[in-house]
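user: Please supply your own:

assistant:
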Amino acid sequence: MQGIWLSSNRFKNLQQIAIAVRLAKEYPGVVTSLIVGNEVLLRGEMTAADLAGNIRAVKASAGNIPVTYADVWEYWIKNREIYDAVDFVTIHILPYWEDIPVKAKYAAAHVDEIRKRMAVTFPGKEILIGETGWPSQGRMREGALPSRTNQARVVSEILDLAKSEGFRVNLIEAYDQPWKRKLEGTVGGNWGLFDSVKRQVKYPPGVPISNYPDWKLQMAGGMALSVATFLVAWLTLRRRPWTPR
């Protein structure tokens, strides 16, 4: 899938569209579909009418390659005219970021419920989940707690649903992205399946998951500090008090 970034800058939009269409034609076996815009309606940088026009322009110039648009699921419902312009519907479902945050134990069921609701609202076209997942660290939003164990649970349950019910899903995201912390706080930089420092998967298959993966090192450090503190105190008590001559 090849994305096309759209914004309020019409000139840059034309550049992005031209590049994506060229790549789709040059690499037909690699570029299987085009995503014309990502959350541009959510950001308020384009009207639905302008977006639909851009999508149709891409379809006209790209040939037979399927075209879609990606946004949070509510914005599809608010702008249903986009449905007629695309070949399939790409929605974002992030239980943690919902207006009423969803707890981790209900997150997969929430994703499935929204997917089925969208399938009824937009019949006849595939509903692709373009973004879903759970953060491994950050602030708690009501009952939605970011943690490694919760992330593993949500991701695993969503993937199990996708396999059993036969729908496509894209997890957000492969690696933690620390730069997002400036926009969304700590939680924004911790959605990856891999950490950004060691570049290692956070929960390898078959390995017990802990919210404190370095607990042994932390425990050893705490014990060493305690021993050192008591040793200094003991040596201090053993010293003979100083008396002036």
